């Protein structure tokens, strides 16, 4: 058995969830467990780059809307559109109304159906609109929203990979990570991310702390609702479902953080 390294999970997280030049050295369940626990860290890195892109755009004289577009574009690029593709495929599978086996076959097809297009358009529009409003209120708050939303999106993946959530297929990324995270580890990751988000928002005031915590809670609740529905419809999770969960959590968090 290969010797365990504390960096195996970190490599797995960044190597599978981002385009950062990190080589995944192990694909076994133990590495997958560490990788899904480190998933929020990958989201933090993606969110930081996205926030930087938005701030640079604003500094160059652009308005909040263009800065929001730049911010939303960065995660898509840094993930090769993996989560957006998963969202579209999940929407097509759910929208088809077919039995699980047929729905999973629809999700594996390379084309995007009408439900997928609608889901992508509405999700991206909501993300851009929420970020534009946040940037117009405060550059710093807009950048912070980008960081929090990207981090909580990957936290949703950690929770979805917890023990007891089955894989819908015997192959693919979903099967590789399904059920690998102990419940205690998933809950600890959620507490750490929520606590860090609250601490980071303290610089903006007490209201922002409460709003950030609410954003994390509602984002995870929305992802959990989708996870439960997909598990019932498909018999478990797939890589596409993980992508749909990430985008759902990110969008929910951005909408909440743009309010008030």
TrEMBL record:
Asked whether the UniProt record includes Kinase among its keywords, one would answer no
Listed transmembrane segments: 35-53, 59-78, 115-135, 141-161, 173-197, 209-227
Pathway connected to this protein: Cofactor biosynthesis; adenosylcobalamin biosynthesis; adenosylcobalamin from cob(II)yrinate a,c-diamide: step 7/7
**Leader sequence residues:** none
InterPro entries to which the protein is assigned, alphabetical: CobS
What cofactor does this one take?
Mg(2+)
Major subcellular location class: membrane
Where is the protein found, in the record's own terms?
Answer: Cell membrane
Q: How does it sit in the membrane?
A: Multi-pass membrane protein
Please provide the record's keywords in A-Z order.
Cell membrane, Cobalamin biosynthesis, Magnesium, Membrane, Transferase, Transmembrane, Transmembrane helix
Catalytic activity, as annotated = alpha-ribazole 5'-phosphate + adenosylcob(III)inamide-GDP = adenosylcob(III)alamin 5'-phosphate + GMP + H(+); alpha-ribazole + adenosylcob(III)inamide-GDP = adenosylcob(III)alamin + GMP + H(+)
Which EC class is the enzyme in? Answer: transferase
Top-rank lineage group of the source organism:
Bacteria
What EC identifiers does the entry list?
2.7.8.26
Function of the protein? Joins adenosylcobinamide-GDP and alpha-ribazole to generate adenosylcobalamin (Ado-cobalamin). Also synthesizes adenosylcobalamin 5'-phosphate from adenosylcobinamide-GDP and alpha-ribazole 5'-phosphate.
Q: What's this protein's family per the entry? A: Belongs to the CobS family.
- HAMAP family tied to this protein: CobS
Q: What is this protein called?
A: Adenosylcobinamide-GDP ribazoletransferase
């Amino acid at each position: 058995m290969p010797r365990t390294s504390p960096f195996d999970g970190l490599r797995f997280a960044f190597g599978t969830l981002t385009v950062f030049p990190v080589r995944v050295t192990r694909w076994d369940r133990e590495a997958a467990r560490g990788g899904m626990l480190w998933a929020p860290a990958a989201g933090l890195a993606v969110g930081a780059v996205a926030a930087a892109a938005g701030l640079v755009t604003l500094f160059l004289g652009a308005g909040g809307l263009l800065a929001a577009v730049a911010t939303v574009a960065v995660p898509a690029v840094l993930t090769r559109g993996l989560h957006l593709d998963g969202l579209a495929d999940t929407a097509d599978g759910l929208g088809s109304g077919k039995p699980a086996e047929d729905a999973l076959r629809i999700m594996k097809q390379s084309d995007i159906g009408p439900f997928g297009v609608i889901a992508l358009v509405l999700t991206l529009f909501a993300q851009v609109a929420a970020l534009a409003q946040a940037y117009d209120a405060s550059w710093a708050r807009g950048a912070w929203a980008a960081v929090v939303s990207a981090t909580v999106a990957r936290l949703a993946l950690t929770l979805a990979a917890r023990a007891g959530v089955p894989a819908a297929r015997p192959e693919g990324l979903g099967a590789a990570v399904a059920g690998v995270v102990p419940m205690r580890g998933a809950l600890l990751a959620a507490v750490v991310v929520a606590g860090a988000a609250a601490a980071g928002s303290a610089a903006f005031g007490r209201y922002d702390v409460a709003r950030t915590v609410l954003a994390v809670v509602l984002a995870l609740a929305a992802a959990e609702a989708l996870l439960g529905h997909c598990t019932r419809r498909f018999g478990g999770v797939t890589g596409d479902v993980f992508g749909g969960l990430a985008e759902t959590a990110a969008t929910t968090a951005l909408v909440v953080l743009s309010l008030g």
